[in-house]
């Protein structure tokens, strides 16, 4: 994982991990059985609607130009 070029602002109370592969960043939540749940996927090669959100309790904003990722819990 090499997200050192990205600024990650995690404001969520969830225990999250960030995975980066090629042109995609995934936000995952580790589960107690050793597996992971994918919460969001961000396409980093496009500025158009680049976030797929799989957890309605999470809000993610992304700036591909600034290489900045913001993660929040929805209240």
From TrEMBL:
Superkingdom: Bacteria
Name of the protein in its database record: Uncharacterized protein
Protein species of origin: Staphylococcus petrasii
């Amino acid at each position: 994982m090499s997200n050192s070029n990205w600024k990650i602002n995690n404001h969520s109370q969830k225990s999250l991990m960030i995975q980066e592969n090629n042109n995609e960043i995934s936000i995952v939540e580790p589960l107690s059985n050793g597996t992971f749940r994918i919460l969001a996927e961000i396409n980093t090669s496009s500025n158009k609607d680049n976030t797929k959100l799989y957890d309605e309790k999470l809000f993610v904003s992304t700036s591909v130009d600034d290489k900045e990722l913001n993660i929040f819990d929805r209240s």
